[in-house]
Amino acid sequence: MQSEIVDTPAGDARITWHLPKKATASKKAAAGLVLAVSHGAGGGIEARDLQALAATLPALGVTVALVEQPWRVAGKKLAPAPKTLDTGWRALWPALARPGLPVVAGGRSAGARVACRTARELGAHAVLALSFPLHPPGRPEKSRADELLAAGVPTLVVQGGNDPFGKPAEFPEDAFADGANELLEVPYADHSFAVPKRATLTQDEALTVLTDGVGKWIRSQSAR
Question: Does residue 39 sit in helix, strand or coil?
Answer without folding.
Answer: coil
